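Dig into my protein:

:::
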Amino acid sequence: MSTTTRPGARRVLAQTGFETAAVLRNGEQLLLTFILPVIALVLLVRTDVVPLPGATRAPAALAGVLALAVASTAFTSQAIAVAFDRRWGVLRMLATTPLGPRGLLAGKLGAVLCVLAVQAVVLVAVALGLGWRGEGAGIGAAAGSLLLVLLGAAAFVALALLVGGTLRPEAVLAVANLLWVLMLAGGGLVVPLGTLPEPLAAVVFLLPPGALGEGLRTLATGGGLDLGAVAVLAVWAAGGSWLAARFFRWD
């Protein structure tokens, strides 16, 4: 067992390192993964353009922007990167290795988690500078947030591979950016579902951005872990992973 598992693990770790370095070296991806979430956090805390739950705005704002960071890094950035790697033949070369679609998925998920760890540190530092003092940041809330982020990242990476691995790069660029705008404006990432019309809010909660954003906001404002959000993200992560492995095309 160990002789077959260790080489596979080494390949996934190597792919994780490669993917992480690629994100941190890309200026456009840094804009999407770091600069825009920081701008969104400042606007949410300093203005009341978006109504937020809680006694102060900072906890819910930080939760929503963390959800935005997950979607930006795990879906939008990864879908575009996969699509253009297919065009440039990078994935064709990976197809000749034992990595496979599941190994590529694991490597990209590992890279996303590494980048998200850096994003979380940056966002928490900015939130502290904006007056946040750790409200809603107990051990239970931190553990619940970690679970939601892990499931959300898995779901978004799987969907990124599905989109980036099946459509043409130009289509992926348009679709990924359009979905990012829709998730930001009304997908439940930074805008609470309570501000949406009731039928729409119920539908949005069943989608990854709505479940992730609402789950993190509920924790941040003292509402406990939303098991419904956990279930939605788990279903999307499992289903998206199966679809990505089934339909992913290397070229």
The chain has one domain: 2-247. The chain has a mean pLDDT of 88.
